[in-house]
Amino acid sequence: MQDYSFDLTGRTALVTGSSRGLGYAIARALGHAGASLVINGTNTARIEESADSLRADGLSVRTAAFDVTNEKSVVEAFTTLDAEGLKVDILVNNAGIQLRKPMIDLSLEEWRSVIDTNLTSAFIVGREAARRMIPRGRGKIINIGSLMSGLARPTIAPYTAAKGGIKMLTQAMTAEWAAHGIQANAIGPGYMLTDMNQALTSDPQFDAWVKARTPSRRWGKPEELVGTAIFLASSASDYVNGQIIYVDGGMSAVI
Ligand code: NDP
Fold it and tell me: What phi, psi does 127 have (nearest 5°)?
């Protein structure tokens, strides 16, 4: 009988941008659910530090430092994993950056940098993963969207465009790859306590706005995302395709 459990034993998970923040929390949880991990980021020292702390937790970890926006580096990283016999069963496209600036002051270079890191990367890394998952007839792709996959706020135009794009890229992946046994889904985190939001959490006005605007009246903790990630990475979600699941304390549900 097919196994529809949350157990990830025997699977390999590549989580981009997992040297810290949400990616680290997701990787750690997938590891504790049984997966072998491939940890990524651009800062080699930070990746090694994170890998050591995951290993100290008893997890199986390999590091792969590459820039998710650089097609050549991504292809090389997958080729190296192939040569080592490592098959990526679960891909979490999580790496991302934020840039806060009014749109009228934004340069094209800044626009491209945010779009490349938050959206184009998911295409590049997703395509390399899918090229290997399709012949195996199975795979899980989890794209990290945002509240901004469906809502907008001032000063973060390229981020909003990229995260909206992540929602539709997830549907496009589903249209082309679901028939090959790949489930592509997205997670839309709300306001979470990570480095990316340090400037916001230490701004009393913004902090108060988040708490007032979120029905659960608080910021989210990275650990609160991981149950959804394990679900979407496991056989428990084998008939869930092309969805975005918001983990946001209810913010996307109310105005
Ligand atoms: P952090 O800034 O804490 O961490 C970002 C991670 O991405 C780091 O590991 C960083 O590693 C990596 N990274 C950045 N650029 C690249 C790149 N070009 N190539 C490879 N790795 C890269 O961010 P969060 O954990 O807060 O965010 C993670 C994801 O969740 C992002 O996609 C973000 O948009 C999304 N999200 C976050 C929310 C939040 O409230 N925090 C809310 C909604 C969505 P290094 O520094 O080594 O490059």
Answer: -65, -45
Res 30 pLDDT > 70: yes
Give pLDDT tens digits for 57-105: 999 999 999 999 999 999 999 999 999 999 999 999 999 999 999 999 9
Give the number of other Cβ atoms within 10 Å of residue 241's Cβ. 18
Contact (CB, 8 A) for 33 and 8 = yes
**Which residue's alpha carbon is at the smallest distance from atom 10 of ligand 1?**
17
- Is 159 an active-site residue? yes
Q: Is the distance from the beta carbon of residue 188 to the nearest atom of ligand 1 less than 6 Å?
A: no
Which pair of structure tokens corresponds to residue 201? 């959490």
Does the pTM of the predicted model rise above 0.90?
yes
Give the DSSP H or E segment for 142. strand 139-144
Q: How far apart are CA 179 and CA 73, in angstroms?
A: 29
**Ligand 1 atom at shortest distance from the alpha carbon of 25:** 25
Both tokens of 102, joined, read 């009014």
What CA–CA distance (Å, rounded) separates 139 from 81? 16
Nearest partner of 68 among 60, 76, 59, judged by Cα = 76
- What's the gap in Å between 216 CA and the centre of ligand 1? 24
142-177 core/surface letters (b: 16 or more CB in 10 A; e: else): bbbbbbbbeeeeeebbbbbbbbbbbbebbbebbeeb
The dihedral formed by the CA atoms of 118, 203, 229 and 29, expressed in degrees to the nearest 10:
120
